[in-house]
Amino acid sequence: MTKKKFGVTHVGDEVTAYTLKNSSGAYVTLLDYGCTIQAICVPDRDGKLVDVCLGYHTIEEYEQNDSYLGAVIGRFGNRIEKGRFELNGKTYEVAVNNGPNHLHGGMKGFDKYIWDVLTTDDSIQFSRLSPDMEEGYPGNLAVSVTYRFTEENELVLDYQAKSDADTVLNLTNHCYFNLSGEGSGTVLDHDLQLLSSHYMEGDADCLATGKVLDVAGTPFDFREAKKIGRDIGMDDVQLKYGGGYDHNFIIDSKAYLKKTAVLSSNATGIRMTVWTTQPGVQVYSGNVLTHRQGKTGVYDPHDALCLETQHFPNSVGKKEFPSVILKKGEEYSQLTVYHFER
Ligand code: BGC
């Protein structure tokens, strides 16, 4: 583990970059700002390190970041209809910051805070106390995300939380992957397999309606690996709404740690397998990733894929889905593993 000053925010707070390197030389760099994955450098088929995650070189860019590049999302990943939910008979209102709905924790989500840090030789734990009613969410929430990077090139994210009152919680990470290398252009030529037979319908604002759809016979069928771009242009109302893929897939496996996705690039030979304890994954093909300068090149729509492991969006109070309620004193615990091979 090494650490280095990354920059200073516009209000004068210092941001630090932490690097976890394994004995092969592969490494990940993490920021205490937003608990952000700033770089993932793993070997390609020739052993050359390739940075497979989109990001920036300066804190200013992260502060202006409207796309959550690499950040942890909280308290609630994805949308909540009209920013309103009921819990224990009480209605809570959270920010409406995405059309008519709430998105990714509100105006100042977990991605915009500097987290406390605890480091060991091979792990970094970021933590913060999210106070009662922060962004409208009840309960003082103690939350931590621990990153480890193993000798096998597995990036492990371990999420823990506890609240002093009943609340709702849906944490995820919003890393944008491009296995041909960040800044190298589109990921529509990447092969993607999703171990999901069902996904959730979105409305015109990409809000999950709660309706579960079968992938069979649709462009959403990734059960056999196919190019992300193969069907993305098909005449399908769900693809039109999102401008591509922006949907929650329901993971088929009921195991504790479930394999959910395999993404690979022909250009580098890098393959990433995603494992998670979560029941779903938001598959987002960077549809509204507006043109911008990134670390080594410009980024445009579809230049990355997000695989945001999570509970189902807009599912507060929907009894048919896995509960997103965190009861007072209960331990919240979720694990996601991104495994890079070549
Ligand atoms: C959402 C998209 C949204 C994006 C913002 C994704 O998780 O599903 O609808 O535009 O985040 O960067």
TrEMBL record:
Its EC number is 5.1.3.3. It catalyses: alpha-D-glucose = beta-D-glucose. The keyword Oxidoreductase does not apply. GO terms for biological process: galactose catabolic process via UDP-galactose, Leloir pathway; glucose metabolic process. InterPro entries: Ald1_epimerase_CS (IPR018052), Aldose_1-epimerase (IPR015443), Aldose_1/G6P_1-epimerase (IPR008183), Gal_mutarotase_sf_dom (IPR011013), Galactose_mutarotase-like (IPR047215), GH-type_carb-bd (IPR014718). The keyword S-adenosyl-L-methionine does not apply. Beta-D-galactose binds at N78, R79, H174, C175, Y176, D246. It holds the Pfam family Aldose_epim. It comes from the Bacteria. Pathway: Carbohydrate metabolism; hexose metabolism. This is Aldose 1-epimerase. The lineage of its organism: Bacteria, Bacillati, Bacillota, Clostridia, Eubacteriales.
